[in-house]
Amino acid sequence: MTTAPGRRPQAARHRPWPWCRECTGIALDLGGARTRAWMSGRRQILDVPTVAFSGDGATCPVQRGAIVDTPAATRMLDRLLGHRLPRFVQPLLILTTPVLGGIAFRAQARAAVEVLRPRTVLTVPTPRAVAMAADDDLSRPLLVVDIGAHLTEVTLLTDGAVTDARHTALGTGDLDGLTPPARITDAVVAMVRAVLDEDHTSQALDALQRGVLLAGGGALRPDVTGPLTHRLGTPVQPVPAPHTAAVRGAARLLQAAHAHPSTAAAHDIPHPR
Questions:
Q1: Homologous superfamily of domain range 137-238
Q2: How far lies 143's CA from each of 10, 146, 167, 217, in Å?
Q3: Predicted model pTM
Q4: Rounded distance, CA 225 to CA 234, Å?
Q5: For domain 25-128+245-265, is the CATH number 3.30.420.40?
Q6: pLDDT tens readout for residues 20-46
Q7: pLDDT by residue (tens digit) across 108-137?
Q8: Which residues, 6 or more positions from 46, have their beta carbon under 8 angstroms from its beta carbon?
């Protein structure tokens, strides 16, 4: 690094991944059924069941949007990513979080990812990551519906920030002979109506008229999503590859954070809940 006379030294700007050899980045989406990760320098997304193994057998460390077994989550992340990290590297890590997961989820997730030796951990609400993956216009209100295996969320984003959110502990993994797909459709419609009822501005209505953005594995189920356009009276548009949208959006945010000069001292991306 060189310095012109009379000027303070400035850190060299990082090159975009995968050409930057100075640091490593990880985007991570911890789901109840699947865990997905993207690492700098890789083209493919790592996609594995959210399962950890011990002497007592297999366990599911993430359930219904909550981390219920932090040590098991740690073992799972070490098995998935630990051996892929270069020795002595401290990665920049960005983690998607359920909107209503709150402080508890973020604290437990931070404890679990310590096994990856991150130098900085940023968190981003899952619906914001989904909107980033869809390259949506965040200057306008947006309704995001994320239908996972065991959790379904409806979120209103305004200027990219969460202004209202609802969830139900129900997802595609619960569908069987006694739980038809219409149960999830009904739940989504009820949550959207609740958001509209609670909004004392025009933001929710504007977002609904704009159309609903669909994500999660449930967006690939026409028996779940098909009736939504008629029931909500508005277009319903799945994100491309909706099951990996959250981690892809986190990867985009990660690459932007990687180039930002304040990353080394960064704190969480604002998360109002």
A1: ATPase, nucleotide binding domain (3.30.420.40)
A2: 41, 10, 13, 17
A3: 0.84
A4: 12
A5: yes
A6: 555 688 999 999 999 999 988 777 899
A7: 999 999 999 998 899 999 999 999 999 999
A8: 36, 37, 38, 39, 80, 81
